[in-house]
Design a protein that fits this description.
Elements lengths: L1 H7 L7 E8 L6 H8 L13 E7 L3 E8 L3 H4 L11 E7 L4 H16 L8 E6 L9 H7 L2 H4 L5 E5 L5 H21 L6
Parallel strand pairs: 1-3, 1-4, 4-5, 5-6
Antiparallel strand pairs: 2-3
Length: about 190
């Protein structure tokens, strides 16, 4: 620390922290993606019951991610955990059954229209793109009606899989840029 203070003029500037909520149906890959981002062991991942919190480090920010379980009996409680969120990560299984895709669509629509979330940036991760049944981004955008529904909102639709963590990081880096933009807009005295 002394050497750093001497040669680099003080300690490194602290990274900004953002509180985000991560939702999606069970099996969409929320836990797997977050565990990989934290460079943790992925051998014993089980579906989240209730919620878990992970501090996910990036070069210029730390995301405190509150991951909510995606089982049907838990989804009805999601809104109780939205307060204080600065952004939303929605993970969907782009290779899921039609029924699950319809449920995911309904949950995403509810989140996009929820009073505590409707002004926040969204990162929508179209996971499992490595599977043969995966829908393309255009199919997802059309099926989920993202253009008309999310008009005026800040959102990113990112294709990904645990096999391509670079795509996941790219989506999160774009998401952090949106969070930083909002931070800049809320600085007192800025025009």
């Amino acid at each position: 620390m002394c050497f750093r203070a001497f040669c680099c003029k003080g300690p490194p500037s602290p990274r900004t922290e953002y509180d985000v909520v991560c939702v999606g149906l069970t099996g969409s890959g929320k836990s797997s993606l977050l565990t990989q981002l934290c460079s943790e062991n992925t051998d014993s991942i089980i579906p989240t019951t209730g919620f878990s919190i992970k501090a996910v480090p990036f070069q210029n920010a730390i995301l405190n991610v509150k991951e909510l379980g995606g089982a049907e009996n838990i989804r009805k409680y999601w809104s109780r955990y939205y307060q204080g969120s600065q952004g939303v990560v929605f993970v969907l299984d782009s290779a899921s059954s039609e029924d699950d895709l319809e449920t995911a669509r309904n949950e995403l629509h509810s989140a996009l229209q929820h009073p505590q979330l409707c002004t926040l940036p969204f990162l929508i991760l179209a996971n499992h793109q490595d599977k043969p049944a995966a829908r393309s981004l255009q199919e997802i955008k059309k099926y989920f009606e993202l253009e008309p529904l999310a008009r005026g909102q800040r959102w990113i639709l990112q294709p990904c899989s645990v096999e391509n963590m670079d795509a996941v990081r790219e989506g999160f880096n774009q998401f952090i840029s949106l969070l930083e933009e909002i931070d800049q807009e809320h600085i007192p005295g800025r025009i």
